[in-house]
Each structure stands twice: as structure tokens, then as C-alpha cells.
Amino acid sequence: MRKAAIERMGLEYAFSVRRACGLMLVAVSTYRYRSRRDDTLLRERLLALAREKPRYGSPRLHALLQREARVNHKKVERVYRELGLTLRRRKRKHCVRVGRPLLACTAANQEWALDFVHDVVECGRTIRVLSVVDAYTRECLALEVDTSFASRRVTRVLDEIIEERGVPQSIRCDNGPELTSRHFLAWAIERRIELLHIQPGKPTQNARLESFNGKLREECLNVSWFQNLFDARRKISDWRTEYNEQRPHSSLGYKTPKEFAREQEAKDVYTAGAGQEDSNAVPLPHTPIPAQTEDGVTINSRIQECAK
Predict the structure, then answer these.
(1) Each residue of 178-189: pLDDT tens digit?
(2) Contact 129/146 with Cβ under 8 angstroms?
(3) What percent of the residues of the chain are helix, what percent strand, and what percent coil, each to the nearest 5?
(4) Quick one: which of 145, 153, 159 has its CA closest to 117?
(5) Kind and range of the H or E element at 136?
(6) Residue 297 confidence (pLDDT)
(7) pLDDT tens-digit profile of 54-70?
(8) Which residue, among 34, 54, 46, has the nearest Cα to 82 in the 3D structure?
(9) Closest Cα partner for 139 from 251, 223, 219?
(10) What are phi and psi of 127, to 5 degrees?
(11) Would you say residue 42 has pLDDT above 70?
(12) Cα 126 to chain center, whole Å?
């Protein structure tokens, strides 16, 4: 900036270099200094990597260059900016969400978790998988597969689960358009279900379902070849059955989710029965308390006095 100002003063006002440097408080040696460093090789390599990986930023490109030769990250950042490779990221507008921490659930249907997973079939067409999980029993309540999901389709799937299991107290989900639409919000209000929307960019606030999605990805999607949509539905449905009824779950003491759910249901039935028995129990025999009058004299003592 100062060098450009000095050059402009020399052209417009015919100032000498020494006088212009004095006015700008810049040493003449500093103005006349020309860098001897040659960044030609780095520029060429950085441009080649940027063409191969156009969405890589400066730190990631620096990591790739480090595999070939030792390069200072500040130098890479400077050349990266000089070449005009800086990525333009568009900041999306999100609703302001307050973080809801994960609380330990104590019964089924206290909280359901909901999210989407993406994959492709043989022809390259994208499919989406709607996963719904009970936060307490870890049961997979639904794995719906289709090419797209509108909010009405999501509520239809949830209504089918509600008919079988009952209404949940809350549903934890992200801020996707299907889960923030007016229809979905009105559906939740009508059924008195609390919606726990996580904060944007913080999937750890829905960690239970993220863990389940990782298992779904590793054990089913990554090892399966889907010929078409119907083949994907069949294979994913078979994996859901295996997950609920055969696969041991580490957080449930290596029991299956179905087995854990049956045990908890049996405990609830036993606890409810024990409470009912206690309420209908025959009272223990006890000595009757003699009735007293206002002056503190018992009725029995007056009867004895009259008999005398």
C-alpha cells in the first residue's frame, strides 16, 4: 500500500523517491527492496492440486503438499491467496435454535430420534432412508426407503408407528425442510409431541441416532449393492430385523433391542401389579382407639360409672 502511494506521488507531483519516502515514513531501502524468493514451483503444484480438488481449502492442500516436501503453512497460505484460490462459502440462514442436551431416558416412548441417510442404487439414482429410533430401548422403529420425502410422508410413517407403540413424549431431529415445515409442526402440536430441534452444525446433540446411522452405513449400506429401489427396500428391511432381533447392542449389556424392550416391559408390568396388590391389601388388626368427648373423658368410662 505504501509503495503504491509513493509511486503515485512520484507520477502526479514529480517528487523524488527520497522525498516521497520521507513523507510516507518509509525507508528508501525498504521501498527499493525486491524479494529474491521464487515461488514458481509451489505455484504450479498448488494450481495443479487445486484443479484436482477444487473444494479443498488451504489447510487441506498444505497437507497434500507436506506428503511431497516440507513446506511452511504460512507460505502456502500466502501463495494460495495470491493465486485467488480462496473458496467462497455462502452462509446459510438458519432458525435460531437453543441446544437441548441429551438426557438419560428411563422408559420407552420418552424420546424418539429421527434423521435421514443417503445412498445410491445401481443406475446412480439417489435414495434416502428415513430412520426412527427409540432413545431408551434403541429399537429401530422404521427404516423407510424412497427417492424423496415430503413432510406429509414423514408424518404418515410416524403415524403408523404411533398406532403400534403409542405417542412419544418428544422427537429429536435436525432442521431439514421436511422437519420444520408448517405441516410437521402442526402435526406435532395436534398430538402434543415436543419437537427437540438440534442446533445447526451440531449433530452430536442427536448422538444416539448418529451412532445408529454409522452402524447402518458400515454394516448395510457400504456392503450392499442395490440394483433398484425395491432391492434396497428389501435389503434394508432385512438388516432392520437383524438389528432389532439378532444383533447384540453394547450399550444394552450386549442384549438385542427387542430382548431389552421385553425385559423392561415385564418389569413395568410386575411393578404395576405389585403396587396394585399393596393398595388392595387387608389392613392389619389393631386395638381400637376409645372415643373421647370434648372434656377428655372417654365414653367407656361413663358407661362403667352408670352401671355402678
Answers:
(1) 999 999 999 999
(2) no
(3) 50, 10, 40
(4) 145
(5) none
(6) 47
(7) 888 888 899 889 888 88
(8) 46
(9) 251
(10) -125, 155
(11) yes
(12) 22
